[in-house]
Amino acid sequence: MTTSFKLNLPQGTLITGRWKGGRYLIQRLLGQGANGVVYLVKQVDSARLYALKMGFDTVDIQSEINVLKALQRQGKRLGSAKRDLTYLVEVDDYSLQGREIPFYVMRYIKGEPLRVFLSRRGSQWLDVAGLNLLRQLRSLHVSGWVFGDLKPENVLVGSYGEVELIDYGGVSGMGRSVKQFTEWYDRGFWNAGGRTAEASYDWFSFAVVCIHLLAEQPLKQAATQLPQMRSSSDLLNLIRTESALERYREWLRRAVEGEFQDTAEACLLWKELVLRPRPEVKKKAATPVWIISAFAVSVTLLIYSLYLALRF
Amino acid sequence: MRQIMLITDGCSNVGESPVMAAALARQEGITVNVVGIVDYGAIGELGSQEIYEIARAGGGMSQLTGTERLAQTMQMLTRKTVVQTVQQAVNKELRQILGRDTIEDLPPDKRSRVVEVIDEFSESTPLQVALLIDASASMKPKLAAVEEAIRDMMLSLGARKGQSQLAVFHFPGPRSEDAVLDVNWTTDLGSVKAIFQRLVMRGATPTGPAIKQVMEFFRYGTLNRNEKEAWPEESDEGEGMLGDYVV
Fold this sequence. Notes:
The structure holds two protein chains of two kinds. Chain A is about 40% helix and about 20% strand. Chain A is an alpha+beta fold. Chain A starts with 13 loop residues before the first strand and ends with a helix. The chains are: A alpha+beta, B alpha/beta. The interface between A and B is medium-sized, with 31 and 26 residues.
């Protein structure tokens, strides 16, 4: 049955598939999700790097794999060339101490979590990452799926804001129930709607993600009040008043209220907003006079001391 | 599909064994899950052992948690038990058709199709969950969190494709009843202002008898069935508590 157990495989462990015999060497731990552990592995035969996810529960992991497979099939049918279709590489089981652990191998994506990316590159990069993220959601929604558990940790960002969603364990078909969610980003947590998987569920989550990233303190305050007092009007209030959110204000409001026709419209509005010129960030102030004079003094002193030193 | 979810913070101390009551429930096709709340002080070796055993005997799962993760834990257990129940039925079929033991023994591509069926059933089977809340004195500071978790759970169940109903009981009652009905089968808690009204906290924890009472409720839709009535008759309104049954 589904006793969850701790998987702690050291570097260099060889994973051999039970059915297909694929061999993978564990390099290091990449992360731990709600229903599995992800390792960076090297495929022994090709020396290529992949990510390998081991599940705690056969049915859970298989239903995640089913989603990935369906997405891949749909991707092929829609002929979207830009999307890498080799996301899912292999599905197999690994025997460890007499039990079969299901795993799947997927392409390894280099990137950093959204929060780390923004603190390194500056929060204005949300313009780009946000648009890419919405586009990812759009293609997911068009194929009839809802991401569900959208949170900063599940968004990996490449060096120029390319976005990859990770952890498909929370993906649900439209019209079903959202099976995995995280409280702050959950519509139900804010008493702002149900947990049925629909596009607007993801818009709402993404809006809260933005607020969380740009105005963390006020959001925290709103989130920690009495549960029966929480409502979407708390969020709308923040959106209206926080200056950090000003750029995305209209988008956030419509996302929280679920007012987009579809995700394509959500993308469009985001794009319009971020293509507007940013209000000039304060011009670099001219170098103050005292620094210039201090610099002149220090150069003079340097020359004089060199002169003294080299004189003899 | 029928489930009892027991929420408690310690050991039973009155009446028959809750483990046995859970085993009986399982025979009746009711799965028993248990959540142990461990907020203030430890739950004790004895308590956690009992929690584990009740769930085992009841064919369900158990988990210890703090109140801050209560809602999440309740939903996780419910979801997993639903999947597990469907899975067991599927495994049985597999044994008959393919001579294979379990889903784990199927090659990945076959497994994929079987799991699709499991997912579909898990999402669309009608589901009844009876929440049985330990209201002994030590639970008092946790009841607000419990109520919040129940509302949150209803929200998740309400999003399922299949009809999902929730009923809430607490035990013991003010006049030593084994269990008191707080909310009758419902699909929406929006109209229910306060789940727990007129609670009188008592020291005793008759977990075993309470489980049996809820089993009765599953069968007859009421808690105060007269022992002589052999067939379900919705004689008394199920609302409110009526616990004086013939001994």
